[in-house]
Amino acid sequence: MARDPIEISGADRQGARERAFRLLAATVGALFLTFASLGGIFLWYDSAARSVSHTHQVRSGISDVLQALSDAESAQRAYVLTGDRMFVAQVNASRAKAEHDLQAVTALTEDNRDQQARLQILRTQMAKRLSVIDQTMAARAAGAPVAAIRIIRRGEGIAAMAEIRRLVAELDRTEADLEAQRVERAGAIRILVLLTLVGFAGLLAWLFIRALRDINLDREVEADTAERLRALLADRTLLLDEVNHRVKNSLQQIASVVRLQSRASEHAETREALDKTLTRIMAVGRVHEQLYKAGGQIGLFDAGAYAEALAHELVESMGAENIVLETKVEPILLDVRQAAPLALILNELITNALKYGCPTNRTPRIQVTFGTDGDDYRLSVSDNGAGLPEGFTPKKTKSLGMRAIDALARQLGGRFEIEDAEVGARFAVVFPRSTV
């Protein structure tokens, strides 16, 4: 059994949507993983870069300690030779700077036991060197430059300074090795970042190519689906028009049989009943005729145009040229399922007005209105005849037409109303706008 084109098209579109969804999920997942990886790598690289900077700070701090001690030593010798108090201030400033820089380096190397041990020895040697400087400065301040020179010649300060230089060189060499290792690690991480970015770019390019391919496939499927649906719609429109045309012809044939039966009947009541049945059949037949002529409005019924056309046809069928017909209808499209009930209601109301609402002592006037009333539709037919008897209600009357209108109004989800009129009678059917 051949598959319905709609089913085939739906399967194609569903497959395209599933591919698009999988591609979207893969893209989102790849983006999430890539950004997470990049975030972790960047944090790793930032840590490595901070390690390199930290090592550089340690080396700079060690160099600053040695330079401060050298400055203090130079200022001490100048003071011994000249006795100028200016050099005392320089010694004190260099001493304070050396102690401050040593404390900073100690804080920076708290996580390195070996460096802390070396710094402890450095601190001891620096204390010895500063002690010799203090002794020399005190002797010169006491006016004994020879004694100060003797202290210098003892060599204790020179030995301490030599040990300090050795320790500083060892500290710097250790930090240089650490810095080299950390620079190498930072470089490796940088390469990894670049590789990740290249991989990410490649992934995006692949996803983009896949997306373009799926988009093109989806467009092809959509174009093919649209073509199938257009062809299917044309076939079904043609079939629906043919059905409406045949239904109209069938109703006309039935109407012809009813008309012949009416003419052949000898009883007036029978002829009247058959004539009413005939008008009802013709009213429904006109519905299918309009649907047949509607063209592309599948499933919709132009109730406004139908109401005006039916009113004029029924008045003309009476052959009374003195009847004034007034119509006020809005172009309203209803669901085709509402067509038959509305057509029968309108037929009954107009037929009833033509039969009972045409006075002989004045010009007969029939008004047909159809339009919106808030959230409802309102169909109203009025005449200027003798009016209704006292206490008239559709449910109590024996008239089949009135009872049929009441039942058809309920079928539309609405109600049948008898409105007050100064002259004649006014009937209305009110039903909601929503589709039945």
The class by helix and strand makeup works out as alpha+beta
Query: Whole-number average pLDDT?
Result: 78
Number of strands: 7
The end-to-end span amounts to: 35 Å
Report the helical percentage: over 70%
Total count of helical runs of at least 4 residues: 9
Strand content: 5-15%
Task: Let me know the largest β-sheet.
Answer: 5 strands, mixed
Low-confidence stretches: none
Provide the descriptors you would attach to this structure in a database record.
436 residues; alpha+beta; five-stranded mixed β-sheet; two-stranded antiparallel sheet
Can you summarize this structure?
By secondary structure, the protein is of the alpha+beta class. Helix content is 73%, strand content 9%. It has helices spanning 5-82, 86-108, 113-141, 145-153, 156-264, 268-293, 303-318, 339-356, 400-411, and strands at residues 300-302, 324-329, 333-335, 365-373, 376-383, 415-419, 426-432.
Task: Describe the protein.
With 436 residues, this protein is of the alpha+beta class. It is built from nine helices and seven strands. It has helices at residues 5-82, 86-108, 113-141, 145-153, 156-264, 268-293, 303-318, 339-356, 400-411; strands at 300-302, 324-329, 333-335, 365-373, 376-383, 415-419, 426-432. It has a five-stranded mixed sheet with strand order 2-4-5-7-6. β6 and β7 (426-432) form a beta hairpin. α1 (5-82) packs parallel to α3 (113-141), α3 (113-141) crosses α5 and α8 runs antiparallel to α9 (400-411). The longest helix has 109 residues, at 156-264. It is rod-shaped and about 165 Å long. The two termini are 35 Å apart. The model has no long low-confidence stretch (mean pLDDT 78).
